[in-house]
Design brief:
Distance between the termini: 21 Å
Number of helices: 6
CATH architecture of the largest domain: 2-Layer Sandwich
Order of helices and strands: EHHEEEEEEEEHEHEEEEHEEEH
CATH class of the largest domain: Alpha Beta
CATH superfamily of the largest domain: Pseudouridine synthase I, catalytic domain, N-terminal subdomain
Strand content: 25-35%
Radius of gyration: 20 Å
Largest sheet: 9 strands, mixed
CATH topology of the largest domain: Alpha-Beta Plaits
Length: 237
């Protein structure tokens, strides 16, 4: 037996918190009965779970993959404005419950993770799960030593200091580029950090999440992670 909210999350229907909202809104039935009690448990082998009338089943096997995201795609599985989405780049036919873990901006390229496992996605997105993310940021001009020190010690964004970051220059003029490693996930954080020190980013690429790098994965392509990579990503938990 497992909690209904966990069942929905593992099925990829929503995050754990999102699943609880679905239950409270009366959108979930178990064996034909609408369920609103969050503590309800179900038997995955015997119970029939439906969301808005559609059957919700656990995948036979959970899948986690990495995508080398190109520029020009929105990190969402559906965009009301009709823009290209990352959903077009991953194997939804084979794994319809895939969803992205975190996001990359429209113009940002690099490593983006997807999973069918709601528990895994929820764990990796939780603030208590600290995972380093390394970016390569090309800037309009070189940073001064003072600006580098500010980035390393934290800058103010929306009235809150960012956590200390590791920053080093990896390429000089005419296209100064900096490797910056952070572990927070605030909206457009890297771009806003550089704006805060007066040097806008002209090109941004996420090269690494935790121990995972893109390696030789071509832009626009994806590959499935093996269990050892997933374990390494979540610290073996």
């Amino acid at each position: 037996m497992m909690r209904l909210s966990r069942y929905l999350a593992r099925a990829g229907a929503a995050s754990r918190r999102g699943a609880e909202r679905l239950i409270e809104d009366g959108r979930v039935t178990v064996n034909g009965t609408t369920i609103r009690q969050l503590g309800t448990k179900v038997d995955p082998a015997d119970d029939e779970v439906r969301l808005d009338g559609q059957m919700v089943a656990l995948p036979a096997q959970q899948v986690t993959l990495m995508l080398h995201k190109p520029a020009g795609y929105v990190t969402t599985m559906d965009d009301p404005q009709g823009r290209p989405t990352v959903a077009e780049l991953v194997p939804l036919d084979a794994h319809p419950s895939l969803f992205p873990i975190g996001r990359l901006d429209f113009d940002t390229t690099g490593l983006l993770l997807f999973t069918t496992d709601g528990d895994l996605g929820n764990a990796l997105a939780h603030p208590r799960h600290v995972v380093d993310k390394r970016y390569l940021a090309r800037t309009a001009s070189s940073l001064s030593n003072e600006a580098l020190d500010r980035l390393r010690h934290g800058v103010m964004i929306d009235g809150r200091m960012t956590a200390p970051a590791r920053v080093r220059r990896v390429q000089g003029e005419p296209h100064p580029t900096y490797a910056i490693t952070i572990h927070e996930g605030r909206n457009r954080q890297v771009r806003r950090m550089f704006e805060a020190v007066g040097t806008p980013v002209t090109k941004l690429h996420r090269a690494q999440i935790g121990p995972l790098t893109l390696g030789d994965l071509p832009c626009g392509c994806w590959r499935e992670l093996d269990q050892a990579e997933v374990n390494a990503l979540i610290g073996g938990s």
